[in-house]
Specification:
Layout (H helix, E strand, L loop, with lengths): L1 H14 L32 H5 L4 H7 L6 E3 H8 L4 H11 L6 E3 H13 L7 H8 L32 H39 L24 H19 L27
Antiparallel strand pairs: 1-2
Helix pairs in contact: 1-8, 1-9
């Protein structure tokens, strides 16, 4: 069993790695709302586009004319017209957090939240409440900005561990690796106890389960029956995979935990919206 669990752990380590007056069809006018005065510093006020158009996931697909997964200035001008250049500029200043001249879905989603809940903390109510309850510093990078739109941000950082974006991504990478390893181990433990008797009989190998139905472990015993070479092989393999992952270029738009491992194409090429 332990072979199964450790082997699964090794696998986890590897895996861890138009003029304004003519709105396009479907771009409904947003309901009037009071603009909060608790906006972040230097945050520009809502553009006329935000006041005039109710931002939704479907609208993102319409604005993303070429289907590339992001909205460019050229696409906005193609829809709203060159006369809206000033409003488009204001919109980009508010929403383009990484400054690449395009809005990906995470940035657009933040804009939707700001339209719905106000500008403070990028419209993230979890972050806003976390600050109110003292679980996050108001000046934290998780409060608003590029770091705040990482998936899963609920504003919980009472010790201010996320001091900068690079540090936050390293922590997120480690968290994902540990989570994947834990999930595989949790599945491998009971599966190994169920499958080991059949596999050992099929392969003509000794049944290494303790008392006939328990996986070898510190609590159950039986670790002395595992060949030490197996542990050494697993450690060398895991270290090799980890060293390879550490050499990957994780700058730019790299998403923590995304090592390009998607053999079934479950996510590759799929839109975020």
């Amino acid at each position: 069993m332990l072979r199964t669990v450790v082997a699964l752990g090794a696998v986890a380590s590897a895996a861890a790695f138009a003029p304004m007056g003519a709105r396009p069809m479907g771009l409904a006018r947003s309901a009037p709302r009071a603009v909060t005065t608790r906006s972040i510093k230097m945050q520009a006020g809502p553009s006329s586009i935000e006041k005039d158009v109710k931002l939704t996931a479907d609208v993102f697909k319409q604005l993303d004319v070429d289907g590339g997964g992001s909205i460019s200035v050229a696409e906005l001008k193609a829809i709203f017209g060159n006369n809206a250049a000033a409003d488009i500029s204001t919109l980009m200043k508010r929403a383009d957090l990484d400054g690449n001249g395009e809005l990906d879905y995470a940035e657009y989603e933040r804009l939707m939240s700001m339209q719905k809940f106000g500008d403070a903390q990028g419209g993230n109510l979890y972050v806003r409440n976390a600050i109110n309850f003292g679980l996050l510093r108001s000046e934290s990078i998780l409060a608003d900005g590029e770091a705040s739109i990482l998936v899963g941000n609920k504003g919980f950082d009472p010790f201010n561990c996320a001091t900068n974006l690079a540090t936050l991504k390293n922590y997120r990478e480690a968290e994902l690796k540990h989570g994947r390893l834990a999930m595989l181990a949790a599945a491998g433990w009971p599966v190994s106890e169920l499958a080991q008797p059949y596999l050992s009989k099929l392969l003509g190998a000794p049944d290494l389960l303790v008392n006939g139905d328990q996986a070898p472990s510190i609590l159950n015993g039986g670790l002395d029956r595992i060949n030490p070479l197996f542990f050494m092989a697993v450690i060398v393999f895991s270290a090799t995979v980890e060293a390879t992952a550490l050499k990957m270029d994780k700058t730019g738009d790299y998403t923590p935990g995304d090592l390009g491992f998607d053999p079934l194409s479950l996510y590759t090429g799929k839109p975020e919206a």
